[in-house]
Design goal:
Layout (H helix, E strand, L loop, with lengths): L1 E6 L4 H11 L5 E8 L3 H11 L3 E4 L2 H12 L7 E4 L2 H7 L6 E4 L7 H9 L3 E4 L2 H18 L3 E3 L2 H9 L13 E8 L17 H5 L8 H9 L1 H14 L6 E5 L5 E7 L4 E5 L5 H9 L13 H4 L13 H12 L3 H17 L7 H12 L8 H23 L1
Parallel strand pairs: 1-2, 1-5, 2-3, 3-4, 5-6, 6-7, 8-9
Antiparallel strand pairs: 8-10, 10-11
Helix pairs in contact: 1-11, 2-3, 4-5, 5-6, 6-10, 6-14, 9-14, 10-13, 13-14, 13-15, 14-15, 14-16, 15-16
The structure holds nicotinamide-adenine-dinucleotide and magnesium ion.
């Protein structure tokens, strides 16, 4: 029986993780659930899964949540609040596996704490890895923790890697990775119309049902840029060994190309419960609840090269990883600020890459050799990006 902590339980990945865990009550016990501000969602999850701990990060809402829990049938749940409580629950002795499913930089410290504590880290929170890079991978190596990718592409690559492969090491005889992308909702829109797209259009992903931030990232293809950086770190590869492939049907979730000419692909319906169940059962397999793939419904699969003029964010991600050091942190922070401003209707969709590029140009790159430097660059990039947004809209 393994103890499970879900960071970001109320989000899209968190909900799917609980769905999978509930199918295997003899293998997984839910120990801790966390949410930022959705206390109603968290309360329902507490009633259904009865964890030992529940964390509400927003301290203003924690008191109300605590009162609800104490007059409920699950009044023995310990309620904690504040960002530091995320680290507390991610490192509990009763916890074996931590699902890192908070969106954005807010997930870095608890995910890193889990890695340092030697927990099995099921990593959905790609921003945490992109911003902390080698520091995160070193923490995994030093503690001997297992790091299992949840992002569907990286989970697919992991499944196609040689037997007994461990993330962060060289894939023996692997030539390159083919990282697939759906191309998002604007793959075929005339480029001059992209300035006018609305947040509603941008979050309506053709194949996947996800949180708002990653949906916008998929529309700009910054998601693929972050995933390219994520793949370099997880699989110890150079950026030029990662080929992004637009595959609109989202049936193949990525491929590994070996020196002998063999290409292994992982396929399945676009349902995040598949990679989640793979990582939770690893090295075994169990039911995920996902519909089996009907190959006859697929009928055809298309593959195209990405157009960097249409998707400048992908180009910026390559620039960031090639610059190295703190630049991926700056890229990620500027993107988080720009996406938030777009969702708030303060900037145009096409302003997103402009803001990121200007932020990257304004901040000198330094070696990312401590957490302090990374957090400092993250903050600096947020301040600069906000200033650029103010200039743009006046
Ligand atoms: P979401 O917006 O649906 O959920 C985010 C979760 O994080 C919520 O539980 C929320 O309460 C919590 N959260 C938000 N801000 C927080 C803060 N400041 N402090 C603490 N908790 C906070 O997001 P999602 O779609 O589930 O994505 C989660 C992560 O997984 C992201 O990093 C995303 O890139 C990655 N991911 C998601 C999918 C998907 O299909 N949704 C696929 C691959 C990777
Ligand atoms: Mg993905």
């Amino acid at each position: 029986m393994k103890g499970l902590c879900i960071l970001g339980a109320t989000g899209s990945i968190g909900v799917s993780t609980l769905d999978v865990a509930a199918r295997h009550p003899h293998l997984y016990k839910v120990v801790a659930l966390t949410a930022n501000g959705n206390i109603d969602g968290l309360f329902e999850q507490c009633l259904a899964h009865h964890p030992q701990y529940a964390v509400v990060v927003n301290e203003g809402l924690a008191e109300k949540f605590s009162r609800k829990i104490s007059s409920s049938p699950v009044s023995d749940i310990k309620v904690l609040s504040g960002a530091s409580a995320l680290e507390t629950v991610a490192t509990l002795d009763e916890v074996d596996s931590v699902m890192a499913a908070i969106v954005g930089a807010a997930g870095l410290l608890p995910s890193l704490a889990a890695a340092k504590a030697g927990k099995t880290v099921l990593l959905a929170n790609k921003e945490a890895l992109v911003m902390s890079g080698d520091i995160f991978m070193d923490a995994i190596n030093h503690s001997g923790a297992h790091l299992l990718p949840i992002d569907s592409e990286h989970n697919a690559i992991f499944q196609c890697m040689p037997a007994h492969y461990k993330t962060g090491t060289d894939g023996k005889q692997v030539r390159r990775i083919l990282l697939t992308a759906s191309g998002g909702p604007f793959r075929e829109m005339p480029i001059d119309q992209m300035a006018h797209v609305t947040p509603e259009q941008a979050v309506a992903h053709p194949n996947w049902d996800m949180g708002k931030k990653i949906s916008v990232d998929s529309a700009t293809m910054m998601n693929k840029g972050l995933e390219m950086i994520e793949a370099c770190l997880l699989f110890n590869m150079k950026p030029e060994q990662i080929q992004v492939v637009i595959h609109p049907q989202s049936v193949i979730h990525s491929m590994v190309d070996y020196v002998d000419g063999t290409v292994l692909a992982q396929m399945g319906n676009p349902d995040m419960r598949i990679p989640i169940a793979h990582a939770m059962a690893w090295p075994e397999r169990f039911d995920s609840g996902a519909k089996p793939l009907n190959i006859f419904d697929v009928r055809r699969m298309d593959f195209e090269e990405p157009n960097l003029q249409r998707f400048p964010c992908l180009r910026l991600a390559y620039n960031a990883i090639n610059a190295g050091g703190t630049m991926p942190t700056v890229l990620n922070a500027a993107n988080e600020i720009a996406v938030e401003a777009f969702l708030d209707r303060r900037i145009k969709f096409t302003d997103i890459p402009v803001i990121i590029e200007r932020t990257m140009a304004a901040i000198a790159v330094t070696a990312a050799d401590s957490l302090e430097i990374i957090l400092e660059h993250d903050q600096k990039a947020r301040t600069v990006a906000k200033e650029i947004i103010t200039e743009l809209i006046h």
